[in-house]
Automatic annotation (TrEMBL):
GO terms for biological process: regulation of DNA-templated transcription. This is Helix-turn-helix motif protein. GO terms for molecular function: core promoter sequence-specific DNA binding. Residues 61-114 form the HTH cro/C1-type domain. PANTHER family: ANTITOXIN HIGA. It comes from the Bacteria. It comes from Fulvivirga imtechensis AK7. SMART domains: HTH_XRE.
Length: 122
């Protein structure tokens, strides 16, 4: 096992190629241990060089609705009326604290994600 820090894009590509070769190694083998360590190094490099930002609150709600196969009408109880749901999802109105609490519970989303600022359209 010859593992080195990933410092460059070339190191990163080499690590990905090696991980692809040893990915399915039997647990408990040296190759499996190498895959575990290499995976951690690759993850750290990707977090630093290819960060993925969390979606804004409205996008997060829409993504979760899709995952849960929900329609706008399914959020009436949490948001308060069919037209209010439409206004929120079309960025015409901001979420209130009560809506955030209700949506966090119903959609199993972090309230911290839902309180992030976002632009409304006029």
């Amino acid at each position: 096992m010859d593992i080195k820090p990933i410092r460059t894009e070339a190191d990163y590509q080499k690590a990905l190629e090696r991980l692809e070769v040893i990915f399915d190694a039997k647990i408990g083998t040296p190759e499996s241990d190498e895959a575990d360590v290499l995976g951690l190094l690759i993850d750290e490099y990707e977090k630093k060089h290819y960060p993925i930002e969390a979606p804004d609150p409205i996008e997060a709600i829409k993504i979760r609705m899709e995952e849960m196969h929900l329609k706008q009408v399914d959020l009436i109880k949490e948001i308060g009326g069919k037209s209010r749901v439409s206004e929120i999802l079309n960025r015409k109105r901001k979420l209130t604290v009560d809506m955030i609490r209700n949506l966090a519970a119903r959609l199993n989303l972090s309230a911290g994600l839902l309180i992030r600022d976002y632009q409304i359209t006029k």
